[in-house]
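Researcher: First entry.
Model:
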Amino acid sequence: MTVRIRAHHLLCMLTYVGKGYSGAFTANFDKIVERLGNGEDLILVTGPDDICAPLLADKNEHCFGQSVVERDENAARAVETLLGRPMRPGERFSLDGEWLARMRKAFAAGATRQPCEGCEWHDLCTEIAGKAYQNTRLAIEAPKPRP
């Protein structure tokens, strides 16, 4: 399977420590970072994604809001600039340890933080990045040797 991810969640997953909007949200996010850490591919999508899923029963949820759409657009540009590869809806890729280290370094340095302005989690994410991403839940397993 493939995990559906909106662009700004590429940044959110860097600092995810198990806090979120509800118990269902964090349980779902835990499963997603585990899947990604185990090598499952992701595809960039427009609008609500697999991380948003527990919140989507409420059509007034922020996941549908214009500010989040703008955050996605800004995140896509920031990540695209950093990685030098397209970050548009429909792009498929998998994460690896090099990707995670590069993204976290840029995030901690502020290079990809502009999309996070106005986010309610901004201060928490700043604190986590400042503490070298201690207790974050996204871990990328090393590739398994082929027989």
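Researcher: Second entry.
Model:
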Amino acid sequence: MAITTGDTLPDATFSRIGAEGPEQVDLSSLTKGRKVALFAVPGAFTPTCHSAHVPSFIRTKDDFAAKGVDEIICIAVNDPFVMKAWGEATGATEAGLTLLADGTGAFTKSIGMDFDAPPVGLMGRSKRYAMLVEDGKVSVLHTEESPGTCDVSGGEALLAAI
């Protein structure tokens, strides 16, 4: 069953490239006692993710901060090297967004947001969604019906809901 508003996020570990190379990041350390905007994409460098979804959160970052959001986190079922390169290519890293790799897709599967799209070579990927998480609990959740659209899960739509 997919995660829904009011649910507590499960324990999860992501990876990213830090100063010393690959490092692990516990989701609980990012959400405990904090307000976080978390969004997920089917894949780094894929068209809608690259040209619409990430840019929407770059554009709205200051507005989220004004509403008390401590951090904006993007998750994808990719490896941390790809996420680092994508953060640099999109300007997300420079803008202060946190890009994390769910390399095995374990988190994505645990919240029921995984899907396969064999015709385009995407297997075990994440559905496109955005959520507001307050102290580890989902307070707002917007999930796209189609992985190729970024309507309800974009930065502006999530911002309008909080």
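Model: Note on the second entry: Residues 81 and 162 are 32 Å apart (CA to CA).
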